[in-house]
Every structure is written in structure tokens, then in C-alpha cells.
Design the sequence.
């Protein structure tokens, strides 16, 4: 008789109750192998996966859609579960297939192979991408093939080719929204992977040069000193219709000017790495400089992204005058905040308590979008699940550790490969219908492979990045892993890890009691521990309310009448005003005022409507440099109308970037970055803030900028402008617009 896995996970049935009771009273138990313990099979919602051992150490996996022979691999586990052992071998087999001599993509080198002993991103993604490689290297690749990992990462570094551009060695931001960097800025994740490979002195020197140059460039072009954060799109979640307001589908300036949790945490990690590398070289002043920037960034992240009402860090914030809060959350950003130490222990536990989980696993975004198909929306991504496992281990959350391990095992077993993603409700690779999916789903996806390998090595056997061993094995997984055994083993070739279970199961988590190493063998005697439970959020509303239309704003004497087609919450310049139903009258303020509305349902706020901005705006034309006199003293915003027709909204490398220099009176010139993403017609750029005194004559000049087409290695790019045809950092620039900010409108 097969035990329904869903029942086992939710309430563990009578057998689970028996095990729990035995743990409570300290009974010595030998648990026999049964189907519900996932020894040779598992079942889930009408689907089953079975495994059989073959002579010579191979396995035969029967998944619902395929049968796969899994050959013996270099590293192996020995547990009570042949299924667990086989899937570890399968992940290594998938990794071998992702290890190639040449990479290819239709948008590079005219689709012809580029020689590179690299890792590719997956069966359907046979190219080397910065974020895929970097996350995967951090998870596991550095352990399995460090030489190939270094080669792959080095392929994503480049010098410059454009004349007049500041030279340096920079991480490449792959093609992306609005023409790539600086709309997308998560290239900084490269250092998350590179930090594990510093044992090679030549590579370490390259990393140090690249981290200094890349951080300096990001500081110059993407850091907002008024907010204290780096701008740019959420890491990994780069299909904007799935996660950002629908009105960004054809205009990504909001994204270019927004701030995301994940990308800022990655900058925090890179700053800490830079400080560490500088300290190793006895460059004490520089080390203190990076450490101070890291601390300031950590404080800004906690101040800007934490949403007390939700008990979570928001995925992103943004707006033209001041960043508005968005009731949007993403699991990878939360995991990174926890594992990096940005989140305090109390906040880390609160996050894991408040972020919802479903029977199949944890969604990569929450709440979901009702009008979008399955990809990031309504989906489980195994590599993110493994980062969640890391976060759960950091706070000893045994229940969540159990769920994420089971989710990873179940997904790989039922698919017969390490898939890119799964549907959230069924953990399947195909849900029919217009809003079904996943719409893209590759086998042996590199970061899914790496996530599975890390789940085994770190998540079960407790081998950390510094090679110390700190297992946290939930008692709930003892029947699967140990069965009637007293020990389980992980053989990493040069090293063997042996976990020995205690005779009595007390509490809910098994941790290291004693750790002894003799030769290549590290033997860990596990002891039981009772931890403070982190309650799982099993029931949460799934969908965001629909995004309202932009409010209508008209002047009524000295007041603004704001009309909204939706009942909800009114915001002015990113700050909550209060409820709105039909119309609200507000006193006018001196300066630019931007109004947006969110709808409410099930305790959630929708994403913000498009903003409607009113107030005095000066238009300055003619040739550059341009001149304007400040009517009053205070802060101002400046932007330009532009058209960048050099590529589509969804991809490319030709976002136009310029520095705007503002010289007012005799004061020092003020500098800010104008980002002009690829566009569909004329639209407004990002804004630059500056200060001026009443009556001062200000001169505005445009200085050179930087974009990804300036990098030499993008000469391989043949999928659009700015690649093989040469660098291209240009847009048609029209009117300069200047608006005062009302007094007290600090960022």
C-alpha cells in the first residue's frame, strides 16, 4: 500500500504520530522501509516515481514521463533511501551534460559555437549567463569542477572597447530589460560565486580588480546617495510582466529608477568581499572604506525595504519623487537577506514565519498575479528552494528544512531531471491553458542541478562553504535517510562525511554532538535538540488585487481633486495619504506632486497604479549646454524627453546612459545619471536631483556615460545593435524638464 505523500507531509498520518511520540519519550526505534518513507518510491497527486538498483552501482529511475538509467558518479551517498542516493547521482550526471567545450545562443556569434570549456545554463539554454553561473557556482559548482567554474566566470568579465570610456575590468550584465545595465544591475552576483575560488592566486587577483572596478562603476551610475541604495531590477526575476506593474510592459523607466531587495543585498555581499580582499593585501584604509559602505547599505536595506505590516522585506520600492512601498515579495531576495546577515535573527525568523508555503513547496514570488501564466508567477524554482533551505538552516527551522528538502527530492524524482521550474500547485512541468505553464522549462537547468547538489552536501550532511560540518537533520527525515541504519555517509572522494544517529530521538532536530576527523573521514555523532518552532504560514491569500488605473487629478482653487475608479489607498509622492473612494480633495503644495492608487483585498494592496504628476514643470530647449534660473531655493528634479529606438523593450545592450552636470551659481557642479532605456517612442528619462538657490543661474551639460555595448566581449553579440557593429550609447534627446520639490520632500 502506498502512503499518500501529501498526507505524510501535512500531518504525517498515524505513522508520523508514532514517530513523533517515540521522539518525545525517547524510545529507540528502527524504522523499516516503506513506500511512504521514500526509500524506493514516492507518490504525489496521482504520479509516482520508482527507483531500482542495478549491478555495478547504477540505478534505473521510472518517472511518470520517462525512464532513465543513472550511472555511478564520482561522489556518492549511502543512506537508507536508494531514491535519495540515485537522485544525487542524477544531479551529477546532469552536471556532466552541462559541462561543454563550446557555448551557443542565437543572439551571439550569429548562432555559431563559441569555444569555451564552460558550464551552460541548461539543456534549452546552451550559453553561459552571468546570474545562472554565479548562483550555481555559489551553490555547488566550485566543489565539483573549480577549473571549469573559474573559466566560466572569467568568460563573463570584460575590458572596454569604446574610446573615451573609463578603462577597467567589469562584470557583464547580460541582455535584458530596456537594453540591460543599468536597468538590470544584478551582474554583481558574479562575486557570490567567485568568492569560493580564491585559492587560485591568479584568479584571486583578477577578482580583486574586477570587484573594485565594478563596484566603482555601480557607485557612479546606479547608487542613489539620497536613498542610500543601488537602483535596478530584481535579481533573477527579469520577466517584468510577471512581477512589476503591467504598465511597465512598454516603459521600463520605473524599473531603472526603482530599488530591489535582492540586488542591494548582492551589492552588500560584494562590498564585504572587497573589504576582505583589501584587508588581505594590507590595504587597511581601502578595507575600512568598503566595510563602511557595506554597513551603510545594510542599514539602508533594513530601513527602506522592511514592511512591518507584512513582517517581510519588500521585493522592490520605487517612484519618481520618493520610493513608494510595494506589496510584493520575492523568496530569493528574502533568502539572501537572511543568509547574508542583513536580516537580524529576529527578522529572519519573522520572515520565514510570514512568507507562505504551499503543499508542493515555496513560491518564488508572493502574492501571485492572476492574469499571468506560470513561470516566475505561481511557480517553484528549485535553486531558490535551496537558498530557502539555507535560510531555514540559519535559524534552525526544522519544519521548513523538511519541506524544502522534500520539495527538491520530489521535483527531481517526478521529472527525471533537475528542471528549471515547476507549477506551484501541482509541482508539475505542464499545466494546460492560456495561463498555464511553465511556459519555459528546461531539463538539467544548471542552477537547479547545483541547488540539488547543495541540498545533499550542505542541507543534509551539513558541509558548509568553509568545509566545516554542521548538520541540521530534522527528525521527520530520519525514517527516509536512516531507516534501520545507525549511520549515513557522503563520499566526496578526498573526504568522507559520516553521520551517526543517536539511539534515542528527542526533540525535532539532530545536530552535531561530537565531530572527529581521522584522515579523510569526518565522523559526526548527532544529538537531538528541541528548537523553538517557527510556525509555517500554510494559509495565505494567493493573488494580488488587480492594479487600478491611474487617478485623474484636476485643480479646484488651491486644492487638487483626485478621482479614482477603484476604492483603495491614495499615495502622494510615495507616501500613504489614506483611503480613497471615488474622489478626494487635498491642499496643493509647492512643487511636483505625483499621485498613485492601490486597491485592497484579502488584507493585501495591489501594485501601484501609474502615477499622475502635477505641479510646476519648466521646459528648457535649445542647444547644450542649457541654462535656467531657479525661482525658489530648494531641491529640484531634472529629466529629459528622449527616444531610444536601438532595440526592443525586452532585451538588448543599448540602454543610453549620460551624466547630467548641473552648475548653479558658484557652487561645485552636481552630478547625476540619466538612464534612457530602449523605448517605443518619446518618453521621460530617469530623474536627477539637485539643489539650487533662488535666482541662481544653472547650467546643464551632458557628459559621457557607459553601457554594456562598451565592453569588448560584447563584440560577440549579433542579436541587435551595439554588438558586432560596435559600441552604441545614444538616444535622441529633446526637452530638458525641471520641477521643484515641495519643502520637506526628502527621498
Sequence:
Amino acid at each position: 500500500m502506498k502512503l499518500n505523500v501529501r498526507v505524510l507531509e501535512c500531518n504525517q498520518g498515524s505513522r508520523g504520530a508514532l514517530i513523533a511520540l517515540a521522539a518525545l519519550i525517547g524510545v529507540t526505534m528502527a524504522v523499516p522501509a516503506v513506500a511512504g518513507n521514500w526509500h524506493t518510491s514516492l507518490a504525489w497527486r496521482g504520479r509516482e516515481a520508482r527507483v531500482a538498483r542495478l549491478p555495478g552501482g547504477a540505478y534505473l529511475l521510472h518517472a511518470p514521463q520517462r525512464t532513465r538509467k543513472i550511472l555511478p558518479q564520482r561522489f556518492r551517498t549511502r543512506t537508507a533511501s536508494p531514491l535519495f542516493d540515485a537522485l544525487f547521482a542524477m544531479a551529477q550526471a546532469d552536471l556532466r551534460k552541462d559541462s561543454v567545450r563550446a557555448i551557443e545562443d542565437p543572439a551571439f556569434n550569429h548562432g555559431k559555437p563559441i569555444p569555451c570549456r564552460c558550464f551552460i545554463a541548461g539543456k534549452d539554454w546552451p550559453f553561459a549567463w552571468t546570474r545562472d553561473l554565479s548562483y550555481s557556482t555559489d551553490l555547488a559548482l566550485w566543489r565539483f569542477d573549480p577549473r571549469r567554474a573559474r573559466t566560466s566566470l572569467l568568460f563573463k568579465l570584460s575590458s572596454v572597447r569604446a574610446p573615451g570610456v573609463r578603462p577597467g575590468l567589469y562584470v557583464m550584465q547580460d541582455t535584458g530589460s530596456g537594453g540591460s545595465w543599468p536597468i538590470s544591475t544584478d551582474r554583481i552576483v558574479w562575486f557570490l560565486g567567485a568568492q569560493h575560488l580564491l585559492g587560485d592566486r591568479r584568479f584571486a587577483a583578477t577578482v580583486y580588480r574586477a570587484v573594485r572596478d565594478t563596484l566603482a562603476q555601480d557607485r557612479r551610475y546606479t547608487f542613489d546617495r539620497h536613498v542610500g541604495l543601488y537602483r535596478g531590477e530584481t535579481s533573477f526575476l527579469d520577466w517584468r510582466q510577471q512581477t512589476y506593474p503591467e504598465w511597465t510592459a512598454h516603459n521600463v523607466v520605473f524599473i531603472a529608477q526603482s530599488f530591489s531587495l535582492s540586488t542591494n543585498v548582492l551589492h552588500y555581499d560584494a562590498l564585504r568581499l572587497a573589504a576582505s580582499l583589501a584587508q588581505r593585501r594590507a590595504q587597511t584604509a581601502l578595507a575600512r572604506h568598503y566595510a563602511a559602505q557595506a554597513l551603510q547599505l545594510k542599514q539602508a536595506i533594513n530601513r527602506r525595504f522592511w514592511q512591518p505590516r507584512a513582517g517581510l522585506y519588500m521585493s522592490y520600492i520605487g517612484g519618481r519623487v520618493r520610493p513608494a512601498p510595494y506589496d510584493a515579495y520575492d523568496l530569493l531576495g528574502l533568502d539572501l537577506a537572511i543568509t547574508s546577515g542583513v536580516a537580524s535573527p529576529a527578522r529572519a525568523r519573522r520572515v520565514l514565519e510570514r512568507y507562505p508555503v504551499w503543499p508542493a513547496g515555496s513560491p518564488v514570488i508572493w502574492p501571485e498575479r492572476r492574469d499571468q501564466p506560470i513561470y516566475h508567477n505561481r511557480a517553484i524554482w528549485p535553486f531558490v528552494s535551496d537558498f530557502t533551505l539555507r535560510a531555514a538552516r540559519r535559524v534552525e527551522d526544522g519544519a521548513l528544512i523538511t519541506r524544502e528538502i522534500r520539495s527538491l527530492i520530489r521535483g527531481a524524482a517526478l521529472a527525471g531531471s533537475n528542471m528549471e521550474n515547476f507549477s506551484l500547485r501541482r509541482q508539475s512541468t505542464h499545466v494546460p491553458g492560456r495561463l498555464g505553464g511553465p511556459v519555459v522549462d528546461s531539463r538539467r537547468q544548471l542552477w537547479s542541478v547545483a541547488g540539488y547538489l547543495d541540498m545533499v552536501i550542505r542541507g543534509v550532511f551539513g558541509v558548509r562553504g568553509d568545509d566545516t560540518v554542521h548538520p541540521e537533520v530534522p527528525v521527520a527525515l530520519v525514517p527516509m535517510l536512516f531507516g534501520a541504519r545507525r549511520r549515513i555517509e557522503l563520499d566526496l572522494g578526498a573526504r568522507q562525511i559520516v553521520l551517526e544517529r543517536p539511539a534515542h530521538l528527542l526533540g525535532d532536530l539532530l545536530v552535531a554532538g561530537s565531530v572527529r576527523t581521522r584522515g579523510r573521514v569526518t565522523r559526526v555523532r548527532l544529538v537531538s535538540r528541541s528548537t523553538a518552532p517557527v510556525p509555517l504560514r500554510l494559509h495565505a491569500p494567493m493573488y494580488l488585487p488587480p492594479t487600478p488605473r491611474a487617478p485623474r487629478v484636476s485643480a479646484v482653487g488651491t486644492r487638487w481633486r483626485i478621482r479614482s475608479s477603484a476604492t483603495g489607498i491614495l499615495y502622494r509622492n510615495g507616501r500613504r495619504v489614506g483611503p480613497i473612494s471615488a474622489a478626494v480633495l487635498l491642499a496643493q503644495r509647492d512643487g511636483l506632486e505625483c499621485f498613485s492608487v492601490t486597491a485592497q483585498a484579502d488584507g493585501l494592496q495591489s501594485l501601484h497604479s501609474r502615477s499622475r504628476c502635477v505641479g510646476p514643470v519648466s521646459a528648457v530647449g535649445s542647444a547644450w549646454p542649457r541654462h535656467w534660473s531657479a525661482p525658489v531655493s530648494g531641491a529640484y528634479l531634472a529629466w529629459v524627453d528622449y527616444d531610444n529606438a536601438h532595440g526592443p523593450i525586452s532585451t538588448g545592450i543599448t540602454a543610453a546612459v549620460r551624466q547630467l552636470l548641473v552648475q548653479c551659481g558658484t557652487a561645485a557642479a552636481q552630478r547625476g545619471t540619466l538612464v534612457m532605456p530602449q523605448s517605443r517612442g518619446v518618453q521621460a528619462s530617469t530623474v536627477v536631483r539637485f539643489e539650487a538657490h533662488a535666482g541662481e543661474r544653472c547650467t546643464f551639460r551632458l557628459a559621457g556615460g557607459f553601457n554594456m555595448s562598451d565592453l569588448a566581449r560584447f563584440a560577440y553579440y549579433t542579436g541587435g545593435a551595439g554588438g558586432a557593429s560596435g559600441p552604441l550609447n545614444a538616444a535622441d534627446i529633446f526637452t530638458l524638464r525641471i520641477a521643484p520639490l515641495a519643502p520637506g520632500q526628502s527621498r
